[in-house]
């Protein structure tokens, strides 16, 4: 489940080139290319992107202006109602530095604090929160006065029962207010605010629990924040990595791509045997068969911490914030493109199922047997010389055969 | 020509510019990221002024006066540095201009000892520059021309060429031939590395891999590597070769990774108090290399199975003897030829790598004995990897490793002729998967949990099938075997049902419409359950009727679902076709059974 919102902030820096129309964001390209191409390449291009919600938050005087309250009503409440039902929810804010991610999430008052206010519910429940910052693949606890010398030293781990966690991270029960650090390097770091929400309920008169987790994620500026990749993992466009230190990245990309290619192939080869798989794999997602190769590059800590929120019974909401100014054209385009491809960012493990040729062959044979049997029965019915008695024996016989056949052919 | 004193200060300026550019610039503040680079640029501009205008140099260059030629080279060095400087500060057009000036100055002498290194580096940087503009083809042209120039120089001359910086050094500071050669080779290694990336972007994957391989090889030859990093890269490259089914190359990379990694253990790190973190990182890397080995063994076995199986996935003895006969003929010469091209390391190193290789074959195993050897190597690496990636703390990694272990058993079972022993191998899979599944909280590991459910169900199904086959060989089906078959079938049903239950939403309702990623597995689970109910053995006619009824319901689910969602059809065409048949046949069959059960009604 994916909802995408475009919030628009900060009009400084040139002409406004973005327009919001219902659920569509349109971007005009007025960049006059004064490089080699010459004067004929100045045609205006408008590119439109469709989303579930689009908000215009530039000028409070504007009749279309969407306030924090409106954004929260649309998104925040759906986050909460999902969590009450037991879904894991993940809400991302993604966009260029300065385009208003942190404002939307933590501003005055943003989604972080509102979620807190609204999480009072009559049902008997427990709310635990944690607040982490990831900077340069290192984690720091924002709810704890940390060791000033080594603020980013927490390690991430997975517990079979309680899921991914950060070693030594503090968890506060709802109601305790902790002195928080200012999440000051926001343009370069991710912040994750997690609410673990546990409701006590009665199910079939037995006490039971519904647990859900809400992750509110304020991503680093989009210049640096592709959540599906490690730092430096992908090179923008086709740029060459200069230093040999990055050889590992090149090799792992190579291995990954060839793996994706070969697993698509293996699916096609199964298809050709008449055992049709849906082989429409969206680019960027790892396809169905078991991972044939192991590529020893870790997911980024962010992806790793959030993986339970990114697949299966979870809802993911992405807020893409853009600046309407012409000076931000490139960033705006890449943010919007990224947001519209956001479904593909998740590397989901899939169920591997074997080609069940054997079973199919067996069943085909059984079908043939059944057909013969039923046909002979019809024949008998039309010919009075067959007695009920003999028919009964035949059924027995077929039954026995059926059990035995099936393996011999 | 500048006076000696002037010349010394010129050299000093040059040295300062290098230090600003390469050392100081790393400490520049965030809000002035290019401060030192701009400083370096100013110095370079001054040097260029002092060397005289380029026109003069070019004009004088024509009569090939020695002084003029010298000045031209020096000017070229400055132009090169300016080019790199502008590229680094995101002024690509200016950077390109300077780099082109550099190559123009050197053009005629590019094959000389004085110029060749600089010329190659200028072309490297032009390649980088064009890749930043997204013109990868142009980058390719520059880099390939650098590659060609290296080859031509080594063929025609081969003496260690001067390093560009030497043109601004006093005689006594000049480098040794050994150092010259090292720097020159390093520049060329970069050319190859950039080409690897260019080929990757152009989707010339094989070529890209070949260039990555050569880069690794040259790092070893010129000792320009960190052992852990190198080992990990080689292990990763092995995974590329795996996907291409190049087992000889893959094994070579892995063996080299092991050998080089062991160097990291021997050489204590420069700081004497190695932190615990470093130790742990080292253990993790080792476990990661082990995981690459597991995949190697697994893929080798699976590829062997693929070449040996008949149309129902059993070992085909004809195919087996055919492949065995074929293997004798070809293996030697073909492998040797390929091997030469990829060999890592020189003498000593190479010997240890080859010794490591000998521990496991790189040829597809063709019988149980051979398969078992590969299996055992894989299993050893499973144990090694699990030592670091423990369940508690590394849930996902640990499970992936155990899944591979299970897959190793599964493929080994293919080679086992004896059904009882084969069944025991599948039981081993159950024993390793089931406890993990039980301990796993599906709220956090839903997708992995589903994978385990499905694999457990499939494994129980497989075991049931084997027991049926064993039963069929008996004169008479004894009650023990019958019970066994039924209980295995029920366990398979249980896990398919658990999988299907995992698709329900928090309100426990099965979705109207299945997501793409679970559509086929869900349908297959339904289909298998239907089949399993058809296979349950009972002498009780009523019970049998019930089972048929349940079976019918599951087949009907498939048919109904596809009627409501026609787009699902293509995902399960065969299963749907058979389900339709069964939905048509079963009711009549049940009528017949009913009639038989109460003949007097």
TrEMBL record, chain A:
InterPro entries xref list: Kinesin_motor_CS, Kinesin_motor_dom, Kinesin_motor_dom_sf, P-loop_NTPase
Organism domain of life: Eukaryota
Pfam families: Kinesin
Segments forming a coiled coil: none
One GO BP annotation of this record: microtubule-based movement
Entry keyword set: ATP-binding, Coiled coil, Microtubule, Motor protein, Nucleotide-binding
PROSITE patterns recorded: KINESIN_MOTOR_1, KINESIN_MOTOR_2
Molecular functions (GO terms): ATP binding; microtubule binding; microtubule motor activity
Sites where the protein binds ATP: 95-102
Keyword match Cell cycle: no
Positions of the Kinesin motor domain: 29-345
A GO cellular component entry from the record: microtubule
Gene3D superfamilies reported in the protein's UniProt record: Kinesin motor domain
Family per record: Belongs to the TRAFAC class myosin-kinesin ATPase superfamily. Kinesin family.
Designated name of the protein: Kinesin-like protein
Organism this protein belongs to: Gopherus evgoodei
UniProtKB/TrEMBL annotation, chain B:
Location relative to the cell: Cytoplasm, Cytoskeleton
Keyword Cytoplasm in annotation: yes
One annotated Gene Ontology cellular component of this protein: cytoskeleton
GO molecular function list: kinesin binding; protein sequestering activity
Recorded superkingdom: Eukaryota
Similarity field: Belongs to the KIF-binding protein family.
Species in which this protein is naturally found: Gopherus evgoodei
Taxonomic lineage from the root: Eukaryota, Metazoa, Chordata, Craniata, Vertebrata
Protein name: KIF-binding protein
Gene3D superfamilies in alphabetical order: Tetratricopeptide repeat domain
Biological role: Activator of KIF1B plus-end-directed microtubule motor activity. Required for organization of axonal microtubules, and axonal outgrowth and maintenance during peripheral and central nervous system development.
Keywords, in A-Z order: Cytoplasm, Cytoskeleton
Protein's GO biological process: central nervous system projection neuron axonogenesis; microtubule cytoskeleton organization; mitochondrion transport along microtubule; neuron projection maintenance
